[in-house]
Design goal:
The chain has 6 helices and no strands. The protein is mainly alpha-helical.
Amino acid sequence: TQGEDNSSEFIKKYRTCRRQMRECSGEADHHEGMSSDDELSPTEVTEFQKSKDNVLEDSRKVFEDVHADFCDIRKILLKFQEWKEKFPDSYCDAYISFCLPKLLNPLIRVQLINWNPLEQNFTELEEMPWFRAIKEFSDAKNVSESK
């Protein structure tokens, strides 16, 4: 198709331009196949960053009208922990362990919007506040079940 022809033509011109730049700069250690045609132009990088910033800005607004007790994973899990301790039969009958993933999913997704494991200084999942809150809840759950 026309779009694919333009794209492949652009890539060929881009490769030629890069090769000529390497030859002029005296870069002798270039190995064919070690460069990428997927590199973004400065304009594309700027557009991507602007779009990413807009998404992040919008993501901060998602839960702005929600009371803090209902958009903080640790506080939500604390309420479930209290329920389980005070009314274990009711908690068990409600199948809460099956509901929690669906309940917490939107909160976790919002926190993961900016997470990129390919960045050099990315935060490990295990270090994220939501992960630690769920781990603490699970550990407390296991302790109470073993009693």
